[in-house]
Amino acid sequence: MSVISAIDYVFVALLIAAALSSVFLGLRRRVALIGAGKAQTSAAAPVGGWRGQLNLKAFVSRGLLTSRVKKRPVAGLAHGLMFGGALVAIFGHAAFVLSFIGVPVYEGRFGFLVMELGREFAGILMFVGVAFFLARRVIGLQRLDAGGRRSGFVAMEVLFLVTIAAGFLAEALRLAMPEVASRGEFLGTVLAVPLRNMDLAAPGLGAHLGWWFHAVLGVGFIGLIARTPLSHMLLAPANAALAHPRPGINLAPIDFDAEPEDDAELTFGAARLADLSRKNLLDFSACLWCGRCQEVCPAAQTGKALSPKKVMTTCATWLDNGRVDDAGLIDEIGLEAVFDCTTCAACVEECPASNSPAGAILEFRRHFVMDRSEMPDTLAMANRNLESRGHPFVGTAASADDWRKGLEVPFFEAGKTEYLLWVGCSVVYEPRAQEVARAMVRILDSAGVSYGILEEARCTGDPAKMAGNEMQFVEMAQANIEDFRERKIQKVITMCAHCFNSFDRYYPELGADWQTIPHSVLIDTLIAEGRLRVVRDEAEKITFHDPCYLARHNDIVTEPRRALAAVGQLIEMPRNRKDSFCCGAGGGNYWGGKGGTARINDVRMQEAVDTGAAKVATSCSFCLLMLTSSASKHGDERRVFDIAELVADALPRPRT
């Protein structure tokens, strides 16, 4: 027997319609605020100011299946309990409506497994999941408090718990009626026992009122979703669908020939929210204030001024308050914090809502550099050197030809040479990195690869771009592209992860059309094809440091490990692959990166030492330089090597 009639459901349906209207109006306000941002200017064709191609993979994986939430197993499990329980509960409520048209939904196997037992477990699972998150907020988790705590979560979680409890109370009141029996509602049956003993005067009325109490709470919860932090349930999947398909940081190009609208002053980068893209503003709206970005940020974890969470929460607060045109935002965030970012993209990789804190930070950096001519002194010196001498290494004693003294290195010949070995600037001007190029020459010669170098030293311009000087980067990139076209270069080998990222990610936006191969990937290919023979030493224990610009930015994690496994025994650090910890050099911090309680490279080197491996390998010249600097604190013996050096040392020695 049911105490709920069709007319009850009609009234509830009207209340649900009102709640959904509240959700719609709340979302419309957020969309209006987000619309104050700029239309996307990426290479993808813009549609209505957004990227033209939806990222369906991210939408399903991150938005619906919450894959990044599950990286933390306990929190992932609690989230899964809530989500799975809610799906079953919603399905059960919807199926109940069918009983009004004669469908016996409570009978048979379906009634027992779904309508009774399934919904019972669903309610319990939701209660446990919500209770976990509420307890964590009440107790106080450090990452939830650092950088600001978002109000509204606790109230909504309490409301959710009360709503679930009210559902079990309504169930118990119904089961307390003498004529009602249940096969699968075990918790409600237990709760109904004391109610039966109370000898209620009107058990049917109590069950009816209990049902309405539960319904009103549930409808109220729905109506508040878009006006509280729980709006992330809608915004995070949308944000995932609009996420860039390529991992890491994806800076939109700047059209330096564009005319400002309505005679406005021409500015670069962002000083206010209105200067950022709509996707950036959606990031701020979708932000959970969970602090996961804070926990993986190398700057934040070594006591520097940058807190990616604080950047996001500040921008989110200003957006909620409608301060989209307030140029004081960039000073609120601060120059020191903006330049502390190593562009490692750990925050981008970790965020469960598909946000890019680093992307917004670099837009602020662009404004500091190109509009206000402000940057840290050491980085400013490197930038001036880049503009005047074509490389950022101030005070270097090395010349462009030092690295190849004593070697016969061919120059690239158009139509004859297959690969250009791009030497870059760090390998040329830093003596320790020069050994990487010498090792790579031995490898290419041994494998019989057709390669050549340019006669003059070059830089891709990555230090300029990541330091915020987009104009300098474009000038250098266009000169390289024009030169490559004249030489008909089609394949390029890089020995620096930053060079690879610039060539492969940003050069095509300016017209480049060649294939770029990281040297670790080429080495792995040459070994796999049998063109490069190496001697493996099982006793040689090697740990590998993943360069951020290969692992997180470009999903290159397997090839370097295969190459190292061919020469020795690979031992992993606790933080590895896409969860690797930065060396501290990126974003121009090779020439800065001061302050804080520790040096980022020292923290990473200690992790490497703790593995017990005799050698630390990497596949980026900047990582090599940073870790080598820290290795000196652990003894005079050389511990840090590039993959090319280890493979070159494992080549069979010529017979005498």
TrEMBL record:
Where do the TM regions start and end? 6-27, 77-101, 121-139, 151-170
Query: Mind listing the UniProt keywords for this protein, alphabetically?
Result: 4Fe-4S, Iron, Iron-sulfur, Membrane, Metal-binding, Oxidoreductase, Transmembrane, Transmembrane helix
Q: Provide the 4Fe-4S ferredoxin-type domain boundaries.
A: 278-309
Pfam families, per database record: CCG, Fer4_10
For whether the record's keyword set contains Metal-binding, the answer is yes
Q: Which SUPFAM superfamilies match?
A: alpha-helical ferredoxin (SSF46548), Respiratory nitrate reductase 1 gamma chain (SSF103501)
State the PANTHER family in the record: IRON-SULFUR-BINDING OXIDOREDUCTASE FADF-RELATED (PTHR43255:SF1), IRON-SULFUR-BINDING OXIDOREDUCTASE FADF-RELATED-RELATED (PTHR43255)
Protein name per its UniProtKB record: 4Fe-4S dicluster domain-containing protein
